[in-house]
TrEMBL record, chain A:
Class of enzymatic activity (EC top level): oxidoreductase
Top-level lineage group: Eukaryota
Provenance organism: Scheffersomyces stipitis (strain ATCC 58785 / CBS 6054 / NBRC 10063 / NRRL Y-11545) (Yeast)
Keyword RNA-binding in annotation: no
Name recorded for this polypeptide: Ubiquinone biosynthesis monooxygenase COQ6, mitochondrial
Length: 467, 320
């Protein structure tokens, strides 16, 4: 029996655990976190991080960083030499390189726009923080342990209950607390079950919470790369191609990470292209016209090792004014870190609600978003903040933390903001991945007037940086 | 803003002409403006932002006192021989040359200027797009071949077998009494690659005559223009097809409408883009094979049709 069982040891789950253990009001609760895969690499990272960057990197908003510093206390355990602050985003359009918008945080005196940080750096800092707080009987992390079943003692009526692979007959109890059955054969009963278990959330299915949304039929291809040299400009670059946005985000020194949202066909191509051609392909994607890109893709589709494309890329690059190339575009990419390419299907989803009696959803279990604005993990951080707030208040008032009376204020605070963010990113994605003439025209005009209307931009910078 | 003033001015220019002519100028101006406005929307948005689409009159620059000079200095040339023009100058050139070409079709300078002023950026960019999508098109853009009587070695072509492209071409040149050097240099198009593309289009024009076998008399020229327009989309050709027939005799019109327009539409649409043909490299290839791979049907021989027609006329007169 536990007060809280957290399923999922991703950034959301570990943050929630560390936040609960950091708050004087919730510290006493007995908590168990269950993670299906091994967290060994996360623990190793704390002691001895690998030399090269890992490929899962996120952009953290200053608000999330503040939360980690003040509420969770894990920021001190972040490997600071592996994060990169940046203060400027330059976004531009492949159908018109002059349609560009710049978000310069220094202009509004904000200093930092966002921080690039590896997922594993965040996870390991949370482990570091939990170690500091002391792992006693009230804090348990079970990794390499899968949740194979969740049952509710009160759901005996098969017709009323959304089954989703769950065996309702196994649990027998007088309490209405859900029972979590583990791959180790153990079962744990929880006053409150929190699903930090990602997009396919078993907890959400157990609770019968509907999640709406759609697949974008798009993949995010990620990779770690090296630039020609360290760019002191600290700019996050994003170019909207008709196949989806391509972003180069700075890491420390000459390192950088990319997210290339692409059609299924293109994403496959990007993964199989010769690793020595790949950097040039990114350079092409950031600068050349769509017609050239299409031609180059078709060459590589026939032969992913066709080094003749380098010649094509060089030739078309030579058509761009050198000065403009230096000022208006990222530095050339020169190297792909071995085996750092991977792709993830992109989708939009939002759960109708985040709570049910004795159940709460946090992070990707509650919502998934297009990565073009780098908000997914940040939304999870704000979820954690609101959920801990709600639990603190419930405890203050002497309420049962598993009751919807306590949990409802979490939904009320977290849901609307997330919903707006999901909507905005969805529209952005749709507007920018079209080559339908009138929309292209409008977006060209729109992006430019946006760039000129300083007040609107200031607002957007504030929104992006979570202020 | 400018659109209205351009049309206004065109009105003044054509008041002296008859209504048919006015119709043409207005249609043409609207077509040109239309393609200017809708074909490449986004680039246009940039131009708009940079103020390139606005009529840079005194009023405008007066409101921005410090930059007034910047607006009046001419941009730098992008390639040797380039004469950078403002958009409104191009529009004037278009209006002037279209009126000129109509009233004086024999004067080449009007035709040439009309060509360049209608080959506005969006159209050339469409051609560029076609070329960049094709391996041979890209090769041409890279190597930038130029066609002159020396680069083509006409003497050598005369010695090729009859069924080769080279021999067909030189035979056509000799028959029509023209030379590859009669083509004028491009000078008003702003981007150097686009300027080359237009130059290339001009230089290849005679090959279109040669492979179709159409002579440069007015009906032949019109047919080739329609064919070209369908195949490549250079508006000059489309305009030519629109207004030129107005000046023809009835029998000429009939031949055009019944035989050559249908042929030009069909062949022009169905054949592969001719701009991507590297003529210099296929001079020794078989012309029928080439027509087959390109999907071009040969039209009936225009000169023969005319001969037959005149023969019939004579016979008719004899009988009477
Ligand atoms: C290409 C790409 C780029 C992105 N870029 C950004 C960015 O720049 N900024 C940003 O903020 N976000 C970004 N995101 C989003 C961000 O990565 C996610 O929002 C975040 O990782 C979600 O964390 P989470 O802990 O909620 O879920 P997850 O990381 O998915 O964690 C869920 C965990 O639950 C475990 N689990 C699931 N089922 C079970 C079970 N039955 N038993 C036991 N354990 C289970 C899983 O093993 C997993 O560890 C990006 C996403 C993608 C795909």
């Amino acid at each position: 029996m536990q007060d809280i069982v957290v399923i999922g040891g991703g950034p959301a789950g570990l943050s929630l655990l560390a936040a609960l253990k950091s708050s004087p009001k919730t510290r006493h609760l007995s908590c168990t976190l269950i993670e299906g895969s091994s967290l060994q690499s996360v623990r190793d990272f704390l002691v001895e991080p690998p030399e090269e960057y890992t490929n899962r990197v996120v952009s953290l908003t200053p608000k999330s960083v503040e939360f980690m510093q003040q509420k969770v206390g894990n920021w001190d355990f972040i490997k600071q030499d592996r994060v990169r602050f940046y203060d400027n985003i330059v976004a531009y359009d492949s159908q018109d390189n002059d349609a560009r918008i710049e978000f310069d945080a220094t202009q509004i005196g904000a200093g930092v726009l966002a921080v690039m940080c590896e997922n594993i750096n965040i996870q390991s800092s949370l482990i570091g923080r939990l170690n500091e707080l002391g792992m006693d009987d009230s804090t348990t992390i079970l990794d390499n342990t899968k949740v194979i079943d969740i049952t509710s003692p009160i759901h005996h009526d098969l017709d009323q209950h959304d089954l989703n692979e769950i065996d309702v007959n196994s649990g027998k109890s007088d309490l209405d607390w859900p029972i979590v059955k583990l791959s180790t054969g153990e079962s744990i009963q929880a006053r409150l079950l929190v699903g930090c278990d990602g997009y396919n959330s078993p907890v959400r299915k157990f609770a019968g919470i509907e999640s709406r949304g759609w697949q974008y039929n798009t993949f995010g291809v990620v990779a770690t790369i090296k630039m020609q040299y360290e760019d002191h400009r600290s700019i996050g670059w994003q170019r909207f191609l008709s196949t989806g946005p391509l972003a180069i985000l700075p890491l420390s020194e000459d390192n950088a990470t990319i997210v290339w949202s692409s059609t299924p066909w293109l994403s496959e191509l990007l993964l199989k292209v010769n690793p020595d051609i790949f950097p040039h392909l990114i350079n092409a994607g950031m600068t050349l016209e769509e017609v050239d890109l299409k031609y180059i893709y078709s060459m590589l589709d026939k032969d992913p090792n066709d080094f003749k494309v380098l010649d094509e890329i060089q030739w078309r690059l030579s058509k761009i004014d050198i000065k403009s190339l230096e000022e208006n575009y990222p530095l050339p990419v020169v190297e792909l870190i071995q085996n750092s390419r991977a792709r993830f299907p992109l989708k939009l989803s939002h759960a109708d609600t985040y709570v049910a009696p004795r159940v709460a959803l946090v992070g990707d279990a509650a919502h998934t978003i297009h990565p073009l604005a780098g908000q997914g993990l940040n939304m999870g951080q704000s979820d954690v903040g609101f959920l801990v707030d709600a639990l603190e208040k419930g405890i203050e008032r002497g309420l049962d933390i598993g009751s919807t009376m306590v949990l409802d204020s979490y939904v009320a605070n977290a849901w609307p903001g997330n919903h707006m963010m999901l909507g905005v990113c969805d529209k952005l994605h749709k507007v920018f991945t079209t080559d339908f003439g009138p929309v292209v025209l409008l977006r060209g005009l729109g992006i430019k007037s946006l760039n000129m209307a300083e007040s609107v931009k200031d607002l957007m910078i504030k929104a992006i940086s979570g202020r | 803003m400018f659109a209205r003033s351009a049309l206004g001015r065109s009105d003044q220019l054509v008041t002296a002409l008859n209504s048919q002519k006015r119709q043409f100028v207005l249609t043409a101006a609207t077509t040109a403006l239309g393609s200017l406005l809708f074909s490449e929307d986004n680039r246009l948005a940039s131009q708009m932002e940079k103020g390139l689409l606005h009529n840079k009159n005194a009023e405008n620059s007066a409101s921005i006192p410090n930059t007034a000079n910047k607006f009046f200095s001419r941009p730098e040339a992008e390639y040797p021989g380039h004469v950078p023009l403002y958009t409104f100058e191009k529009m004037l050139m278009f209006l002037g040359s279209s009126v000129g070409a109509y009233t004086h079709p024999e004067r080449n300078e009007f035709i040439v200027a009309l060509g360049e002023s209608t080959a506005i950026t969006p159209v050339l960019r469409r051609l560029q797009h076609q070329m960049l999508s094709d391996p041979v098109g890209r090769q041409i853009l890279r190597e930038r071949p130029r066609m002159t009587s020396t680069s083509l070695d006409l003497e050598h072509l005369r010695e090729l077998p009859d069924n080769t492209i080279g021999k067909t071409y030189v035979k056509w040149l000799d028959k029509e009494g023209v030379s590859p050097d009669t083509r004028v240099e491009v000078k008003y198009i702003d981007n150097e690659e686009l300027a080359y593309i237009y130059q290339r289009y001009r230089e290849c024009h005679d090959f279109y005559h040669a492979i179709t076998g159409l002579p440069i008399i007015i009906e032949g020229e019109i047919s080739v223009k329609v064919f070209e327009y369908m195949n490549i989309g250079i508006p000059m050709s489309g305009l030519g097809a629109l207004f030129a027939p107005l000046r023809l005799k009835k029998s000429q019109k009939e031949r055009l409408y019944n035989i050559y327009y249908p042929w030009a539409f069909k062949s022009g649409l169905n054949s592969k883009p001719l701009i991507n043909v590297y003529w210099e490299n296929i001079l020794e290839e078989d012309i029928d094979e080439f027509r087959k791979t390109m999907g071009i049907e040969q039209p009936p021989d225009l000169r023969n049709l005319r001969k037959e027609y005149f023969k019939k006329l004579k016979e008719a007169k004899k009988i009477v």
